[in-house]
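Example is below:
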Amino acid sequence: MARLTAAFWVQAYLARLRLADIPAFVVARGDATAGAVLIKCNTLDGQATAFQRRTDPLSGESRWMSLAEGPETEVDGAIARQRGFDPDLWVIEVEDRAGRHLLAEDGLA
């Protein structure tokens, strides 16, 4: 099965967010073909959560899992460390007071 490029997935994700009236923007561009994607959900109250896609070693299933959660400055630090390890990493920031990010929806989960 063919895999989507990172750039294509990011553009599709941003379009889904726009349709739901959820503001989001690209903070860091990674490798267009195979870069990993990290999503930061900023609730605009000083708190945030960063999500990254991980593969469950037992089932082989890939899903979104929390990388860091708490004060936005701490989440930003975790993201900066990840970017230090992986310069091809995409970072998308979603801003929603209710914490909506759509990552559990069909086609994104």
Observations:
- The first strand starts at residue 24 and ends at 28.
- The domain at 6-95 is CATH 3.40.1530.20 (hypothetical protein tt1805).
- The chain has a mean pLDDT of 93.
